Amino acid sequence: CAPDRFGRPQCFCGNYWPIVKQVRAWSRKWRVLATGAVLVDAPGVHDDNSARDAVVKRKIKEADAVWIVSNIVRAVNDKTAKDLLGEHFRRQLLMDGQFGALAFVATQSDVLERSEACRSLKLPRDTTLRACAEARNEYTAGRLRKDFHAGLRELAEQAGEADAAALTARFELPVFAVSSVDYQKLAGLRPGDGPPRVWRSQEESGIPRLARHVRRQALVRRREISLRRCLGMRDFARSSLTLLECESRLPQATRDSLRAAYDQRAAEAQRRLKAACKAAEDAVRASFDTQVAPQLQQGAASAASEALSTAGAWGISVTQGGLHWATYKATTRRHGVFRLNMNEALTAPILKAVSVQWERAFLSGLQTTLDSLRDEVRAALDAFHASFTAALADASVPSAGLGAAPCDSLVSALAGVLSEVREAAQKQQRELSRGIEPIVQGRMLPGYDTATAEAGTGSHRRRVAILEQHVRAEAPKMFRAAADGIISKLEEMRDGLGKTLELEVLQRTLSGLRSAYAPAWDEVGESTLQARRKLAPPCREVLIAANDAVRRLEAAPGRSAGAGTNGGGGGGNGGDADGGKGSDDDEEVTDVTDAAHAAKRARQAADTIDLDDLPADDCSAMPDTEQPQGAAPVGGMPVRVKSEGAVA
Q1: Which of 228, 320, 388, 439 has the most CB atoms around it within 10 Å of its CB?
Q2: pLDDT digit string, tens, across residues 191-237
Q3: Distance between CA atoms of residues 415 and 419, nearest Å
């Protein structure tokens, strides 16, 4: 590069494009994220840059909830929720089970002109600016929800569902109309920008309501995880205490008869448990074989028949809706992914045909199947317990030590196992649902490369002809191969799920059953009894603490609010866009982290001795030894030494 007159190099060959993979921002001052939520500001869907578009797709696959953020003017005019999502994106959200975790945030609710709002919303001319803004918020929420349900009905109709209303009734769209500028002015964060334009309080700006929604969503998830852990601790402590409190020392003949009675009844319980697992496996198999697989094959046939017309629409004149020649070439050079995703357009008929059945098989249907399995296992364990306690009574053996605890512990453990099975299945199905497009893209690569290589006069028409010919030749094979590949992986997943149910439900339950009831006939010596008596009190304390934690967690209402896996949706008051009207139930689940930290700091302060406050004679009585900087042990108590202008 030649230097300029100041000696600086002049380069006209271009610059490196600065690519930032991600930026992480973290601060203890962000109260909205205090409950553990992580906000990911991803680029918009269908980004021109394929790398950014890939980032969006990956983040959406990993997300627990998805927000669509748009200027409120776009939301109520030409860009509704249906348009902003896009058909393919909406379909993928449904298959991922995230439609119930979707929310819409309409920004800049303070930006409006009173005369224009009165005219468009048909309000009286003397309506105040604030009333106009409230009316627009209500209109926005209603229109977005209407378009949201219209999109769901469209997905159901495309998949051949006769009852589209049943699908739309399961989901709701929370809408939040917010004004960050007015909120910052009201919070004193922008003192030099004058008074707020529309809203009179921070609550009316919509930001506090949205912040509560974030905290609540994170707390609900944390509550589920905490409850699962506390249940595990409670069940372990309960089963351990049952063993430790068992001090019966029975004759050998009695113990042998009890073991025989257990084996007989355990065999019956095993038969019932095996039948329940088999019924659950058959239900999963039926949903895959009779719903998902046929729809995949039907969608593959539709994709093959529509492929040529889809590809032909890209190569027609720009005035007729086709692609510009430069865009067409840029897309083939990028293997079908640029401003238009050719691979996505080619595979759309497959996902269109299977989306609703896929959601039913992997999400709502799978949850119903696992719930039925849990109920069957509970019934089998209750029957076993009643029969075995009757056998204990016949042998004149007290059964008070057993109670119903073993069955309760086993059912609680089973609920945790089934929850893990469901989450693992949903994670796997998200990967599989995205596996169709890469298969089609792989079969299209030779066509893309050959078309891109064309150059010179008339290259665009030759490029179009090459790609269309490739589609014509590959269409009968590549879509069938894509569907067969997914079906094969689904069969592996289905069989793996059946083995998991047998291993995790059947074998683990039977093993836990024997461990829970074995104290009734086990032979114990005096040393063993003494060890049990020593361990029982601390185990009892652990059980009391775990029971208290479980009780408090289960007493908190709204456990599944906002859960997206079963289509519950995040509706209700949390989704109002009325600027703060209506009641909230956002404080049903409370984060006690700050309270726990404050209590800990108070205990530390109470246990701290300030040497400056001690009388001189007390200080002289202390050993004259040099202590390291920081906390020093004095009389077995931590001491923080204060000096002039500093705290060590």
Answers
A1: 388
A2: 889 999 999 999 999 999 999 999 888 888 888 888 888 888 888 88
A3: 6
Distance CA 357, CA 286 (A): 12
Q: Can you give the pLDDT at residue 560?
A: 45
Separation between Cα atoms, residue 443 and residue 496, nearest integer Å:
29
What 8-state DSSP symbol labels residue 426?
H
Residue pointed to by tokens 């468009």? 120
Q: What is the pLDDT of residues 632-648, one digit of tens each?
A: 333 333 333 333 333 33
Q: How far apart are CA 322 and CA 325, in angstroms?
A: 9
Please state the length of the chain.
Answer: 648
What count of Cα atoms within 13 Å lies in the side-chain half-sphere of residue 52?
13
CB-based contact 94:155 (threshold 8 Å): yes
H or E stretch covering 10:
strand 9-10
Residues 398 and 231: beta-carbon distance below 8 Å? no
The DSSP symbol for 403 reads T
Q: Which of 184, 183, 182, 208 is nearest to 197 (CA)?
A: 182
Residue 58 has pLDDT above 90, yes or no: no
Beta bridge partners of 337: 341
The per-residue DSSP string of 217-282 comes to: HHHHHHHHHHHHHHHHHHHHHHHHHHHHT------HHHHHHHHHHHHHHHHHHHHHHHHHHHHHHH
Give the global pTM.
0.71
Res. 443: pLDDT tops 80: yes
Average pLDDT of the segment spanning 543-559: 80
Calpha distance 36→41 (Å, rounded): 16
